[in-house]
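Lecture 7 notes: from sequence to structure.
We start with the chain below.
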Amino acid sequence: MSDSKTMFFLENKKVLERTFSKDFIEKMKNRLLTSYHKYGDLKTTKNDPRVVRDELKNAEERIKIYKKTGNTEYLVDAANFLMFEYMEMTGAFLGTDSNENSKIIWD
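Predicted structure tokens for the same chain:
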């Protein structure tokens, strides 16, 4: 591997070490597996007309509870609901540049 490719790889690795959580993803997976065994398959229950689930409202509710309790389990649950929304979305992923997407809100 050339020096520039090595530097790029190492820089990306450092960025991910600071900004990505494998632990969070593992918790998402574990919560999904637990839910599967408690409630059944996501696809089966989602396609059942008796089951009405709003992924965004569920994520928003978990975030609201997290803000009250500080329990990060609710952040994991919110992330899973957001992932379900992504998986089931009727829209399309359209990459945007920094002029088009929303900005980070700083306190």
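Points to note: The first helix runs from residue 3 to 19. The two ends are 42 Å apart (CA to CA).
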